[in-house]
C-alpha cells in the first residue's frame, strides 16, 4: 500500500511536470510568433509601443459641427492623420491610400476603424472645408478642426511635428527625431507657395483611447491593411 501511494505521488508529479513543459513550449511558440509579427510590422514602418500612452482630454469640432473629445476614440480602433485641406501632395496621397484600405476592408461598417484627418491649419480649415475635402474620399471619414492650441497639444502627444515644429520632453526624443525626418521629407515633396510642413505618420489609437502604435510614411493601402489586421487580431 505504501508503494502504491508513492507511485501515485510520482505519477502526479510526472503529470504536473508534463503540463508545465507543454505550457512552457506553448509560451515559447507564442513568443516566437509575436517577435516575428513585430519584425514583419517594422518592415512596413509600423511600431507597437511596449506600453500604450494615455492621451489628455481635449475638445475639437468635427466636420458636422459636433464636439469631439478623447472619449469619442473609445470602443473602436482609430487611425489619425494630421494634414490640411490645401496640402498639395502628402495629404492627398495619404488620404487616397486610406480610402482604398477602408473601402477594401471586408468587414461591416461598425467593425471598421475610424479614419481621422486633424487639421494643422486651423486658421483656414473649419467644419465646412473639412467636410468638402473629406467628401472626395469617403463620407465616413472624420475631420477635426478647432482651437490651434488644442490641436498643437494633441499633436505633441501623438509625436506630430508641423509648422515650426513642436517641443517634446526627453522621453519623446526618438519619436521627435523620426517626426522631424518625416517633416523634412514632406517639405521636399511640396511645390507650392502655401506650405505647412508636417509629419506624415498615422497614429493608431486603441479602443481604450490610448496611443497604441504608429504607422510611418510612405503609406500604401495594402501595408495599412496588413498592419491593421495584425493589430486587431
Account of the protein in words:
This protein is an alpha+beta fold and 233 residues long. The protein folds into 2 domains: 1-43; 48-232, Glutaredoxin, CATH 3.40.30. The chain is 45% helix and 17% strand. The chain is built from 6 helices and 8 strands, in the order αββββαβαβααββα. The protein has an 8-stranded mixed beta sheet, with helices on both faces. α2 (90-104) packs across α6 (221-232).
Report the C-alpha radius of gyration, rounded.
Answer: 23 Å
How many helices? 6
Could you say what the CATH architecture of the largest domain is?
Answer: 3-Layer(aba) Sandwich
Task: Provide the CATH superfamily of the largest domain.
Answer: Glutaredoxin
- The span between the termini is 53 Å
Q: Trace the largest sheet across and list its strands.
A: 1-8-7-4-5-6-2-3
What integer is the average pLDDT?
Answer: 80
Assess the beta-strand content as a share of residues: 15-25%
Number of strands: 8
How many domains make up the 3D coordinates? Answer: 2
Please provide the ordered H/E string of secondary-structure elements: HEEEEHEHEHHEEH
Instruction: Give the biggest sheet.
Output: 8 strands, mixed
Query: Which runs of at least 5 residues are low in confidence (pLDDT < 50)?
Result: 23-36, 165-173, 183-192
Shape designation: globular
CATH topology grouping of the largest domain = Glutaredoxin
CATH class wording of the largest domain? Alpha Beta
**Helix/strand/pairing category:** alpha+beta
- Estimated helix fraction: 40-55%
